Amino acid sequence: MNKKEINEIKKNFSDDCPFFTINNVLQAFVDSEKNIKFSSCGLYNAMPQEESELIAAILKKTLSGSVGKNLLEYHFPKEAYSEGGSQEFFYRLLSSRLGDEELNKAFLSRIAEKMEYVSTYALFAAHCTYSVLNRGRNGERQEDAEAEIDYNFIITAVCPVNLRIDGLIYSDEQNGIIKKPSSDRIVEMPSDGFLFPVFSDRMPDVNGALYYSKNANKPNVSVVNDLLGCEFGMSCKSEKETFRGILSSVVGEELDYDLITSVNDKIAELVDISSHETEIPTVSDKKLASILWESGVSEDKLQHLPKVYESAMGGRELTAVNLVERKTVLSASGITVNIGRDSVDKVRTQTIEGKRCLIIDLDDPEISVNGMPANVD
């Protein structure tokens, strides 16, 4: 799913949209020992409004974040389509519209057994229908019945449950500040979630699932590998570390401040130019070679890039948005300097009287130290 397709579902994920319906909703509470302490399933429209609105907000949250970071699409391997495979199971669950009690129990058991989680959690899953109105060549909606396609999907949110300890509260009844009488288990916004099937070319595609992670640097790999039965690729953090390793291996002693900031600027420019595109930009070995060449890396160094890149990526391409540093952090022993993206050209390294120095150009002579204005002689 690209940004445009995700945004279309997210935009219409609302009770106010006449083309979107939340049908059955499955709820469960799982403790830290993987015991399913509670579960229920019922019609969304039969729930109290305040409760249903909160659940809808939780489910919609799993469609948020950056594509390529928080939202990652995975395709099922061949073995997942056979009887008992993960894709076959989720397809049966989708076909049941969460209306099969035994299948719902199997779904919850599958999550509790296969997903690794450090604490108790609440789970919300819903069967939803989005009526897709196709558009003609002139961009206008086609209102005939044949132009309408129902995109049915299961969306699932995994929410940590935190125990709110006793504390002090203001009591209206006693008109005073008193000790809170009990502790409450509060359901937080989701840390993980997934959607099946994906929405591709404005059509359902049962060959893949969309995984959501609140923390792009620490995704729950067990959701992808064990629960969905797909192969996890790289987290945002891992991809950035891999990219740094490629640069170090290829560039070697040519790697300096100017080169690092130049490469970062060129990749950031690629991301910015593609911000309105539906597909997220990637950096192939050829694209990286072009960037490095423009940044001044010698041809001798670049000859090693294809082999190093293939060894590190194994046929995959780097996701551009995961490589960009929005600020440059320059560190030395006992010194750390944070440099904004628009100010990297004001910093340079230079050897003065035999010592390697960091030079910062000050267009404005007024600086502050520990929040206080200071003079510069």
Characterization of this structure:
The protein has 377 residues and is α+β, with helices and mostly antiparallel strands. The chain folds into 3 domains: 230 residues, no CATH class; 83 residues; 48 residues, no CATH class. The chain contains 10 helices and 20 strands. Strands 1, 2, 3, 4, 5, 8, 9 and 12 form an 8-stranded antiparallel β-sheet that branches. Helix 6 packs antiparallel against helix 10. The termini are far apart.
SSE order and pairing:
Blueprint: H1 3-12, E1 20-30, E2 36-43, H2 49-61, E3 71-75, H3 86-96, H4 101-114, E4 121-133, E5 148-164, E6 168-171, E7 176-179, E8 184-187, E9 192-196, E10 198-200, E11 203-205, E12 208-213, H5 221-227, H6 236-251, H7 257-273, E13 282-283, H8 285-294, H9 299-302, H10 305-313, E14 318-319, E15 327-332, E16 335-340, E17 347-352, E18 355-360, E19 367-369, E20 372-374
Antiparallel strand pairs: 1-2, 1-4, 3-12, 4-5, 5-8, 5-9, 6-7, 9-12, 10-11, 13-14, 15-16, 17-18, 19-20
Helix pairs in contact: 6-10
Q: Radius of gyration, rounded?
A: 26 Å
SS strand fraction: 25-35%
Helix count from the secondary structure assignment: 10
Number of DSSP-assigned strands: 20
* Average pLDDT level: 89
Can I get a quick summary?
The chain has helices at residues 3-12, 49-61, 86-96, 101-114, 221-227, 236-251, 257-273, 285-294, 299-302, 305-313; strands spanning 20-30, 36-43, 71-75, 121-133, 148-164, 168-171, 176-179, 184-187, 192-196, 198-200, 203-205, 208-213, 282-283, 318-319, 327-332, 335-340, 347-352, 355-360, 367-369, 372-374. By secondary structure, the protein is of the alpha+beta class.
